[in-house]
Design a protein that fits this description.
The chain is of the alpha+beta class and about 200 residues long. The radius of gyration is 19 Å and the shape is globular. The strands form 3 sheets. Strands 3-6-7-8-14-13-12-11 form an 8-stranded antiparallel beta sheet, with helices on one face. It has helices spanning about 1-10, 15-25, 35-50, 55-65, 85-90, 150-160, and strands at about 70, 75, 95, 100, 105-110, 110-115, 120, 125-130, 140, 145, 165, 170-175, 180-185, 190-200. The protein starts with a helix and ends with a strand. The longest helix has 15 residues, at about 35-50.
């Protein structure tokens, strides 16, 4: 019962299930654990990343120096300054999506230009979400290209100490004390979705 409570508490705090199981069970490196080797690798890398968490200033500097941006149809998508430039690079969207009402600003959220495997915010002109099930979609993350072929183990290894973990298999890079967030989600061990969030309150 004590271990179950411990696991639930860790899951609530955003610790991935393999890590929660290891920590709650008190498994040491000398003990044998029968979970798949990939889960063991994830758990070890998450633990190492938490022990070597980088300061927010280091993360801010890395993002400022090398940036985080999508590459769609072979072209970098960053710092476009008009809807016309978005349409020129990407073409017309499949449809426009409403995001509902913004309580902070007393108006509707900007619409999303939906291109099927990604969406662009009509106001900020940022790619707000990008799905990697489309093999043409890539993303540059601090100078390294990642795609739907990027495994969770590779991601954790390359970016150890840079991300926060708030839900299993979701890793978030933050700027401006969390007001700007870049989230990377994995399914079945592979990169599945990228999401961008910026607090406008």
């Amino acid at each position: 019962m004590h271990n179950i409570k411990k696991i639930l508490k860790m899951l609530g705090a955003g610790v991935a299930l393999p890590v929660a199981l290891l920590l709650a069970g008190g498994v040491s490196s000398a003990e044998t654990w029968t979970a798949p080797s990939q889960s063991q690798g994830l758990a070890k890398l998450l633990q190492a990343s938490q022990q070597h968490q980088k300061s927010s200033a280091v993360i801010e500097q890395a993002i400022a120096a090398k940036d985080i941006y999508p590459v769609i149809n072979g072209k970098a998508f960053k710092r476009l300054n008009s809807l016309a430039a978005v349409h020129q690079q990407l073409g017309k969207p499949v449809k426009l999506l409403s995001q509902g009402y913004d309580d902070c600003n007393g108006q509707d959220f900007p619409r999303l230009l939906d291109y099927g495997s990604f969406q662009v915010n009509e106001y900020t002109l940022q790619v707000q979400s990008l799905y990697f099930n489309d093999s043409r979609n890539r993303l540059m993350l601090l100078g390294k290209p990642i795609s739907g072929q990027t495994s969770e183990l590779e991601f954790l290894k390359y970016y150890s100490g840079m991300y926060g973990v708030y839900a299993p298999h979701q890793y978030t890079f933050e700027q401006e004390s969390g007001l700007t967030q870049y989230r990377f989600e994995f399914k079945n061990g592979k990169l599945w979705r990228y999401a961008f969030f910026q607090d406008d309150c």
